[in-house]
Design brief:
- By secondary structure, the chain is α+β, with helices and mostly antiparallel strands.
- The protein has one domain.
- Strand 1 and strand 2 form a beta hairpin.
- The protein has a three-stranded antiparallel β-sheet with strand order 2-1-3, with helices on both faces.
- It contains three helices and three strands; from the N terminus they run αββαβα.
- About 40% of the residues lie in helices and about 30% in strands.
- The protein starts with a helix and ends in a 7-residue tail after the last helix.
- The radius of gyration is 18 Å and the shape is globular.
Length: about 100
């Protein structure tokens, strides 16, 4: 019985991590007068892991800071974040 209990405990302990999983989206945004453009990466919830849903989540965040979302470039798996961190610079996980 004890042999079966440990795997069950480990499985249950990992469930909260799975429930709070996030997705990441790379995006392009602009600001007018004067024109400024930026490329960034933002975290979105697991239920927003599509380009359309990510745009709905990120757009309002950017608008609060005076930026306008131009497009969601790609959805990025967590293991690939290091590859885009330098490209996003100051806008890596800022919004």
């Amino acid at each position: 019985m004890k042999k079966h209990l440990l795997p069950l405990i480990v499985a249950l302990a990992t469930l909260p991590g799975l429930a709070s999983a996030s997705c990441y989206a790379s995006y392009k945004a602009k600001r007018d007068n004067p024109l400024k453009l930026h490329f960034g990466v933002a975290e979105v919830g697991e239920s927003q892991c599509s380009k359309d849903a990510a745009a709905q989540a990120i757009g309002p965040r950017l608008e609060k800071e005076g930026w306008h979302l131009l497009s969601i470039v790609a959805m990025i798996p967590e293991e690939k974040l290091g590859e885009v961190k330098a490209d996003a610079g100051d806008y890596f996980l800022r919004y």
